[in-house]
Design goal:
The protein has helices spanning 34-39, 43-46, 51-54, 75-79, 86-92, and strands at 8-13, 18-23, 28-32, 58-60, 63-66, 71-72. By secondary structure, the protein is α+β, with helices and mostly antiparallel strands. The chain has a single domain (8-92), classed as NE0471-like N-terminal domain (NE0471 N-terminal domain-like). The strands form 2 sheets. It has a 3-stranded antiparallel sheet. It has a 3-stranded antiparallel sheet with strand order 4-5-6, with no helix packed on it.
Length: 93
Amino acid sequence: MTPATINIITAEQAGDFRIRLRFDDGTEQTVDFKPFLARALHPDIRAWLDPARFATFRIEYGELVWGDYDLCFPVIDLYRNQIEHHASLEAAA
């Protein structure tokens, strides 16, 4: 069962585009962001494919963010390690 409120408490890089996340309920996930970034069509999102830029992530108020929230993901998606929603992408096509 997923807790009502989930916060990220630690985030450490585990590869060029992989981040190991630990949540306040003890759950850990290693999320690979490269497939999402590589499939993105918008140049502002693809710009995060630069490893040095990608590495500038931080935790703010229990969320993982880059820049001034230039790139962020719903915490529940990170918790479930499901940052891509293939069904909604196929429906949009």
